[in-house]
Specification:
The complex is a heterodimer of chains A (about 425) and B (about 450). With about 425 residues, chain A is an alpha+beta fold. Chain A has helices spanning about 1-10, 60-75, 105-115, 125-145, 145-160, 170-175, 180-190, 205-215, 270-285, 290-300, 330-345, 350-365, 370-385, 390-400, 405-415, and strands at about 20, 30-35, 40-50, 85-90, 95-100, 195-200, 240-245, 255-260, 300-310, 315-325, 420-425. Helices cover about 45% and strands about 20% of the residues of chain A. In chain A, helix 3 runs parallel beside helix 8 (about 205-215). Chain A is globular, with a radius of gyration of 24 Å. Chain B is an alpha+beta fold. Chain B is built from 17 helices and twelve strands. In chain B, the strands form two sheets. A six-stranded mixed sheet of chain B has the order 1-2-6-3-5-4. Chain B has a six-stranded mixed sheet with strand order 9-10-8-11-7-12. The longest helix of chain B has 18 residues, at about 135-150. The relative contact order of chain B is 0.16. The chains are: A alpha+beta (about 425), B alpha+beta (about 450).
C-alpha cells in the first residue's frame, strides 16, 4: 500500500514552481529552468545585459542591432518549418530574444539562442534596408506619440549626456546615421555569453534541457565586459528642470512630472521594487493619498491623471505623474497643483495602504499558479536581481511590504530628488 | 492486485480531465432566466447580461448618446455616491465590470470571486439603476469626447478607417455611433438626452443572461436579482434597419500634404459573424497576416521592405457581415510596389490557401489561444450570449476547440477560396502626403469628403 501511495504521489504531483539553476551547464552568466508541466509550449528567453545606454553614437543602435541579430539567429531551423514564435526587444539596459514553441523545437530554440552570439548572418543590402524598417517602426510607435517624445526630451534635459537619457529607438536623423559596421563593433563589445542570462519555462525537465544546453550554449566564447557607461553616478543636487515639445496631433496641452531619487541603501532590491510598485498603485488609486482624488474627482483641476513608478537598473527610483488640465485651468497651474499635492503628502494612511495592497495581494495569489504569471514573475527576477523569482517568493515579498517602507520611498522622492517638468503644446500646422 | 485495481480506479477518477460540462438553465428568485456553465477549476464567476435591441429609438445625429451615457454611468457617480466612492468600492475587491453599447444590444458584465459577487452586483446595480448624471461631469466628459474625436481625426489610420466606414456603411447610424463622426453631432447632445436614453434603455425584460465560473446557480441567481433590482419592466430600444455594407473595389487616396508618412487599408466582405465557416476564416486571416510568419509580413516587410509590419484581421461592424481588412503604415515611396505585392500575395493565398507546412502550426496556435481564452469565465459567458444572437447552440459555442480539431486543411482552404473576396472587389484607402504616390480612382483631402468617392 505504501508503494501505491508513493506511486500515486509520483504520478500526480506536478513538477512546478521551483526554479532549477542550470548555469553550470552553459557559458552563460546564468541559466534557469522553471518546469511547468501543465503548459503546452516551452519559452526560452535570452536576456543580454546590453542596451541603448551602452552606446555613445547615433541613438537607436542597440535596437537596430537587435533587428539584425534576430533575423540572423532566426535561421536556426535551417530551412525546415519553423514551428515556433519568436521576437525580441531592447531597452536602455537590456536586450531580450525569445522563442516559444512545442518542446520538440527546444533544440531549434537553443540553437537560435546560440546564434545570437555568432556573427551577424545577413547580407549587406538587407542590413541597410533594415535601417529603413527601423525608421518605419519609429514612424509607427513614436513619431505620432507626443507623450513618448515629451518623456524623451525630459530625460535629456534632466540627465544631459547620461546613458539613461538616450532614446531607445532614436530619431529619423539618428537612425539614418547608424551603419551596419557600428552595429558589428557594438556587438563584438557586448554580445558575449558571460553578459547574458537565460530563462526556460514550460513542460520540460532538466534531463530534457541539460544535453541541449551543453550542446548549444556550453562552449561559447566569453570576454571581458567593459563597465556600463550608465553606471556613471547621477548628481543628486535637487535640480528641477523644465522642457516643452510641440506636436501637431494634439489639441490641448498635457504635462509630465518626473521625480528621481536614489535607492535607499538599507532596503533590499526586492523590498524596494514591491514598495515602489505599491506606492505607485496608491498614488494611482482613488484614495485620499492619490492626486486623482483631490485634483480630478474633487476640484476639477485635472481632466486626466496617471502615475507610474519603477526602479531603473542604474538604481534610481522613478515616479512620473502624467496629467492634463481641466477646462479653464492653465497647464502651468495644473503642474503646480500636482506638485503641491505631492509635496503636501505627509504619509500614506493605513486605510489607503489597505485599500490598495490587499486586493493586489489577492489578485496575485489568485494567479500564482498560472503559467503566464509564473513566467512573468520569474523573468522579473531575472531583470531585477539576475535570478528568477518564484510566484511564492514574489507574493511573499509583496506581503512583507509595510507602510514604513512606503513612507520611506515617499519621503525620498520628496526630499532627495531631481525632477523634470515637461509640457506638450499643440502645434499649429502650416 | 485487488488493491492495485482500486488504486487505479481512484487514480483515474482523480487524474482524468473533467468531462465536458453542460450548460444548464435556471431561473432566479425574481424570475430572470439564465444559462450557466459550471467551471469547477475557475476562481471567478462571470455574469453577462445583454439588453436586446439597437439604438433605432434615438433621433438622427444623437447616436452617440449611448456611448456618452454609459461613460457617465460608469464614471460619474451613482446612488448618492461620488464617482471616486464607486471606484474605491470596486478597487477594494478583486472584481471587475464592463458595460458597452453594441449594434443590437447593450452588453454588461460583472466578474468577481464567488465570495464578492453580491457586493460587485450591488455596485453594478447602483450604476445601472441610479446613475447620478451630474451636469458638471457631463460637461467634463463631453469636453473630453470632443477633444478625443477631433484629435483622432488627425491620425492617418483614423482618416483611413473613418473613410472606410463612410464608404461601406452608406450613412447607416452605426457609422456615427462607431466613429463619433461627424464630431459636430456631439454639440447637440444634452444631459437630458442622456437621462432619456437611460430611462428608455435599461429594463428587466428582453434580456439574454449567461453565467460561467465556479459557484452555484443559486449564487448567480441572487446576484443577478441584485444587479437588476429597480430597473423598469420594459425598455424602448429598437433594432436598427439591417446594415448592408458595400465595397466598391475602388482605390481612394486621402492626400494630406503635411503628413510625414503613409497608411493603407484594404477591406472586403466576409460572411456573417455566426457563419459555420467562421473558424476556418479566422485561421485564414491568421495565416494571411497575424504574425511574423504570416504571408503579408513576409511579403511587405521581408520582400518589399516597405513597412515595420502589415497585418490582416476580421472586423465586425454588423453581425450580418464581417469585414476582412489588411492594413499597415508603408513607406511613401513604395506605396504602389506594396499595393501590387499585397495583391499578389493575397490572390495567391485566396486561391492556393494555407500551405501544407503552414497548416499544422497555425492551427495549433489558434487552438492554444482558444483553450487559454476558454479558461476564463468571462469568455464563456460572452460566447454563450453571442451564441444566442447568432442562432447557434451553446454546444457549438463552447466546443470551439473540438471544431478546430476537426478542421482539415482541405476544408479550410475551400472556405478561404469560397469566402475571401477577390482583390479587385475590395475597397482600398490610402492616406499619404504624396498625391501621386499611387494610382487612385478618387482623391480627397479628408475622410469627411468620402461621399465624393462613392
Amino acid at each position: 500500500m505504501r508503494y501505491l501511495v508513493f506511486l500515486f504521489l509520483l504520478l500526480t504531483t506536478p513538477l512546478r514552481a521551483e526554479v532549477i539553476d542550470l548555469s553550470k551547464y552553459t557559458s552563460l552568466r546564468g541559466a534557469y529552468l522553471l518546469p511547468q508541466p501543465d503548459t503546452e509550449f516551452v519559452t526560452v528567453q535570452l536576456l543580454l545585459n546590453v542596451g541603448e545606454a551602452d552606446f555613445d553614437g547615433p541613438e537607436g543602435l542597440a535596437h537596430y542591432l537587435e533587428h539584425l541579430v534576430w533575423a540572423s539567429a532566426d535561421k536556426a531551423h535551417k530551412g525546415a518549418a519553423k514551428e515556433r514564435i519568436t521576437n525580441a526587444w531592447t531597452n536602455t539596459i537590456f536586450t531580450n530574444y525569445w522563442n516559444s514553441g512545442d518542446p520538440k523545437t527546444l533544440n531549434d530554440m537553443l540553437a537560435a539562442s546560440a546564434l545570437v552570439f555568432g556573427p551577424i548572418n545577413v547580407g549587406a543590402s538587407y542590413a541597410f534596408q533594415e535601417r529603413g524598417i527601423v525608421e518605419r517602426e519609429f514612424d509607427l510607435n513614436k513619431s505620432d506619440n507626443s507623450g513618448r517624445l515629451l518623456q524623451s526630451k525630459m530625460m535629456k534635459t534632466l540627465l544631459p549626456g547620461h546613458g539613461l537619457s538616450r532614446s531607445i529607438i532614436g530619431s529619423r536623423d539618428s537612425i539614418r546615421q547608424i551603419t551596419p559596421e557600428m552595429a558589428r563593433v557594438f556587438k563584438e563589445t557586448w554580445y558575449h555569453a558571460n553578459n547574458a542570462r537565460m530563462l526556460i519555462t514550460g513542460p520540460v525537465r532538466p534531463g530534457d534541457v541539460i544535453p541541449l544546453l551543453k550542446k548549444h550554449l556550453g562552449d561559447l566564447s566569453i570576454a571581458d565586459i567593459p563597465p556600463h557607461p550608465w553606471k556613471e553616478p547621477i548628481e543628486w543636487d535637487g535640480r528641477t528642470v523644465t522642457t516643452t515639445v510641440e506636436h501637431s496631433k494634439i489639441n490641448e496641452p498635457f504635462f509630465r512630472l518626473h521625480f528621481m531619487t536614489p535607492s535607499p541603501a538599507d532596503m533590499t532590491l526586492e523590498a524596494i521594487d514591491h514598495s515602489l510598485g505599491l506606492l505607485g498603485d496608491i498614488l494611482n488609486s482613488s484614495s485620499k493619498s492619490s492626486p486623482r482624488k483631490a485634483l480630478y474627482y474633487d476640484d476639477f483641476i485635472l481632466s486626466f491623471i496617471e502615475v507610474s513608478a519603477w526602479r531603473d537598473q542604474a538604481g534610481s527610483l522613478n515616479l512620473v505623474f502624467h496629467g492634463a488640465p481641466d477646462e479653464d485651468v492653465a497647464v502651468e497651474d495644473a503642474i503646480a497643483g500636482t506638485r503641491d499635492f505631492f509635496h503636501g503628502l505627509i504619509s500614506i494612511p493605513q486605510a489607503d495602504f489597505d485599500l490598495v495592497a490587499q486586493p493586489t495581494i489577492d489578485a496575485l495569489t489568485r494567479k500564482k499558479d498560472y503559467a503566464g504569471f509564473e513566467r512573468d514573475v520569474a523573468f522579473k527576477g531575472l531583470i531585477a536581481r539576475g535570478a528568477p523569482y518564484t510566484s511564492r517568493t514574489y507574493i511573499n515579498g509583496l506581503k512583507a511590504v509595510n507602510l514604513t517602507q512606503i513612507d520611506r520611498l515617499l519621503k525620498a522622492f520628496q526630499t532627495n530628488n531631481i525632477s523634470a517638468a515637461g509640457i506638450a503644446y499643440p502645434k499649429e500646422q502650416q | 492486485m485487488k488493491s492495485l485495481k482500486s488504486f487505479l480506479a481512484v487514480f483515474l477518477v482523480l487524474a482524468a480531465p473533467l468531462s465536458a460540462q453542460e450548460v444548464s438553465q435556471h431561473t432566479s428568485p425574481d424570475g430572470h432566466q439564465f444559462s450557466f456553465y459550471h467551471m469547477p477549476n475557475s476562481d471567478r464567476l462571470a455574469i453577462s447580461i445583454a439588453w436586446k435591441g439597437g439604438i433605432a429609438n434615438l433621433p438622427a445625429g444623437k447616436e452617440n448618446v449611448a456611448n456618452m451615457a454609459i461613460d457617465l454611468m460608469l464614471n460619474g457617480g451613482a446612488d448618492g455616491r461620488s464617482p471616486d466612492e464607486i471606484r474605491s468600492a470596486f478597487e477594494a475587491m478583486d472584481a471587475g465590470s464592463h458595460l458597452y453599447s453594441d449594434a443590437d444590444a447593450i452588453r454588461g458584465f460583472v466578474v468577481a470571486p464567488a465570495k464578492d459577487l453580491e457586493k460587485a452586483a450591488a455596485i453594478a446595480n447602483s450604476v445601472l439603476a441610479k446613475p447620478t448624471f451630474d451636469e458638471r461631469w457631463f460637461k467634463r466628459f463631453m469636453r473630453n469626447a470632443k477633444k478625443n474625436v477631433s484629435e483622432n481625426a488627425k491620425y492617418n489610420n483614423s482618416q483611413a478607417w473613418n473613410a472606410v466606414r463612410h464608404l461601406t456603411m452608406g450613412g447607416h447610424p452605426l457609422d456615427q455611433s462607431g466613429s463619433w463622426q461627424p464630431a459636430a453631432n456631439l454639440e447637440t447632445l444634452t444631459i437630458e438626452d442622456v437621462r432619456t436614453w437611460h430611462e428608455q434603455s435599461f429594463s428587466s425584460n428582453d434580456l439574454v443572461i449567461s453565467a460561467a465560473g465556479n459557484g452555484s446557480a443559486e449564487q448567480i441567481g441572487t446576484s443577478l436579482d441584485i444587479t437588476l433590482k429597480g430597473l423598469p419592466t420594459r425598455h424602448k430600444r429598437a433594432d436598427l434597419a439591417p446594415l448592408e455594407m458595400t465595397y466598391s473595389g475602388k482605390t481612394i487616396l486621402i492626400h494630406r500634404p503635411n503628413e510625414e508618412k503613409s497608411f493603407m487599408v484594404i477591406v472586403g466582405a466576409l460572411p456573417a459573424a455566426g457563419d459555420p465557416d467562421k473558424l476556418a476564416l479566422l485561421l485564414g486571416a491568421g495565416v494571411l497576416g497575424q504574425s511574423e510568419q504570416s504571408r503579408l509580413f513576409k511579403t511587405v516587410r521581408g520582400d518589399v521592405r516597405s513597412a515595420y509590419g502589415f497585418r490582416a484581421g476580421i472586423h465586425a461592424f454588423t453581425r450580418s457581415q464581417d469585414m476582412l481588412a489588411m492594413s499597415g503604415e508603408v513607406e511613401t515611396g513604395k506605396l504602389t510596389e506594396t499595393m501590387d505585392a499585397v495583391e499578389a500575395a493575397y490572390t495567391s493565398f485566396q486561391t492556393g490557401g494555407i500551405g501544407f507546412v503552414e497548416f499544422p502550426f497555425a492551427k495549433r496556435i489558434m487552438l492554444k489561444r482558444i483553450r487559454e481564452n476558454y479558461l476564463k469565465p468571462s469568455t464563456l459567458a460572452f460566447v454563450m450570449t453571442e451564441a444566442h444572437f447568432e442562432g447557434k447552440t451553446f454546444k457549438d459555442a463552447i466546443n470551439l476547440e473540438q471544431q478546430g480539431n476537426d478542421l482539415g486543411r482541405g476544408d479550410a482552404n475551400a472556405v478561404i477560396a469560397k469566402h475571401f473576396p477577390n482583390f479587385d472587389q475590395m475597397l482600398k484607402v490610402v492616406v499619404s502626403p504624396d498625391a501621386n504616390a499611387i494610382k487612385a480612382d478618387c482623391v480627397i483631402s479628408d475622410f469627411s469628403e468620402a461621399a465624393k468617392c462613392m
